[in-house]
Amino acid sequence: MKRIDTLSLIAYISIALLLIPVALLLWLGLAVYRSSLGFGAAVFDSIALTFSASAASSIIIFLLYTPLSYELARRSNAVAESLSDIPASIPHPIAGIALLFLGSNLTPFGRFLNSIGFGLFDSLQGMIAALAFVSAPVYIRAAQSLFLSSDFRAELYSLSLGKSRLSTLYSVVIPRHFRSLISAVLTSMSRAMSEFGSVAIISYYILGGPFSGFRPSSVLVYQYYGYYGPQVAVTASAVLIIFSVLLAFAIRIARGRTDRREHRL
Amino acid sequence: MIDADFITELGNFTLHGTMKDEGIISIQGSNGAGKTTFLLSILGLYKITGTLRLGHMDVSRLPVNRRGAVYIDAETYLPHLDVNAHLTFSSRDKNEAKLLEIKRMFGIEHLSGRVGNLSLGQRLRVSVATAVLSSPKVLMLDEVFAHLSDAADFAVNVRRISKERGFDVIVASQEGFEIDDDHRYTIVNGIMHRHY
Hints:
The complex is a heterodimer of chains A (265) and B (196).
Chain A: H1 6-33, H2 41-74, H3 78-89, H4 92-102, H5 108-115, H6 124-149, H7 153-160, H8 165-176, H9 178-193, H10 197-202, H11 217-228, H12 230-255
Helix pairs in contact in A: 1-12, 2-6, 2-9, 3-6, 4-6, 6-9, 7-8, 9-12, 11-12
Chain B: E1 2-10, E2 13-21, E3 24-28, H1 35-43, E4 49-54, E5 57-58, E6 69-72, H2 83-87, H3 96-105, H4 120-133, E7 138-142, H5 151-165, E8 168-173, E9 183-188, E10 191-194
Parallel strand pairs in B: 3-8, 3-9, 6-7, 7-8
Antiparallel strand pairs in B: 1-2, 1-4, 4-5, 9-10
């Protein structure tokens, strides 16, 4: 008879602990309550808004923070590392309040944005900014760990051939690790999709643009819970979870074979 | 011309890098003697104290990409590029005839596909050819010949092209490796000795 490995048993029990609340929500939302409001157009609109804003924020994070992740991996800087962690360490409603003031007429930056009709409050751009702000540390840490664990000799070779560090980043480092970086981007995107605190402050509703009148998914579930009670909220939550699971599968596909081991210890 | 007189300190190990020669220069020593540390110090990976001139230019404070020194070992290649993209990675001269000449010289004219999929020996040939096309001042080969089936012929070609193009070559290898060099050094516990 095959013996059960204790470590594997603990590992799979720990996964079950993570899945129990999710599975319960799916069962209650899709089988027990099945509120028609939970399947309403507003839910799918909110998912479209949240998915689009999260994707946009993740692209911005990739473009802006890949150089920082690489810099931190190759030139250790404790101060810069601590500073880049700040968005992750402050309560997210505070991040929303900070962006609210930054985008207000109290600051030159806010006055400029408002003067060109690009204000942050109750707008898609405000939501994207909030999601990028709170999700950036997730990507930075993932990309930094990836660069740290990779051999640097190809980069050294590129530098010795006369390429600058920036050119080496874009012509050697990113192409070599593109699949893993996309996986890190999708991880930060899934973190962005679950954001509530900051978007509830800066973009409770979206006014204007293609998503006018839409609400972020987390805000919508919170509203449904307050207005209609948990029975409706749980159905909307179940629909949201299905989309989140689809994103999790996308991350798995993006990783592909990069972290598949041929051996078993 | 390589004019080096510096000290590199790595933990408990101290390297006294001294060299004033040009042409084909071999450095021999046992494992841990300091051969690679010397080469990587010239490259600019390690901080040095002292002087370092390559081609009469003080490079001791320059970053790696502005020194004109290329370091090659078994892992220095760009695996995601195909052979032609690798060869022209840093070359400003896109002359097809010259490219073909270099490919023939290093026996890689038949190679194609991603460099990461080539054998170790084939990768080394591509890496050296790429370095030659980048017009370096110094080409540093760290234990390269040990991985090549036709090391003697390859060394002859490296010597020929270095004379034609006017760059110096430092070849680091284990003790006892014979190469047609202009100058020879041995290195023991971080101290370099010039033989000729």
